[in-house]
Amino acid sequence: MNEVKPKILIVEDDKFLTDIYKNKFSSQGFEVKIINTPDSKFIDDVVNFQPSIIVVGIILPNVDGYQMTEMLKKDERTKEIKVVGFDNLSDEESKRKAISAGMEDYFQHSDISPENFVNKIKSLL
């Protein structure tokens, strides 16, 4: 029987970090796609991949994670996809902005191990 893998899209410009998380999620049965520099065709990339969940960095080139989430939530094709923020910003304002932009949750890199992060994502699915 063919089991359907959950799909995760990680949008983060730190290649070292994305390599770690790509390996972690892949080893846990996820199909992983990485976008290091989102551009004007970002929404089309999301529609084509059809992820179960999207993890976005907040501080990115071209567009920040808040703006990206707002774009995703406004588009009929992507508005139901869960989005989680993941960055180094530790202030409460960053988390509040993440939630008000439409993210399910926000995690700080230094506050969560890769294993725990994978478990948090699994629990959101």
Helices and strands in order:
Blueprint: E1 7-11, H1 15-27, E2 31-35, H2 42-49, E3 53-56, H3 65-74, E4 82-87, H4 92-101, E5 105-108, H5 114-124
Parallel strand pairs: 1-2, 1-3, 3-4, 4-5
Q: Could you name the key traits of this structure?
A:
125 residues; Rossmann fold; 5-stranded parallel sheet
Give a short summary of the structure.
The protein is an alpha/beta fold.
What's the pLDDT, averaged over the residues? 92
**What is the makeup of the main sheet?**
5 strands, parallel
CATH topology, which one?
Rossmann fold
End-to-end distance: 21 Å
Shape: globular
> What do we call the CATH homologous superfamily?
Response regulator
Can you give the helix content as a percent range?
40-55%
How many β-strand runs? 5
As laid out across the biggest beta sheet, the strand order is 2-1-3-4-5
Binned strand content: 15-25%
Alpha carbon gyration radius:
13 Å
CATH class wording: Alpha Beta
Number of helices: 5
The structure class reads alpha/beta
Low-confidence residue ranges: none
**Count of individual domains:** 1
User: What is the level-2 CATH architecture name?
Assistant: 3-Layer(aba) Sandwich
What's the order of the H and E elements? EHEHEHEHEH
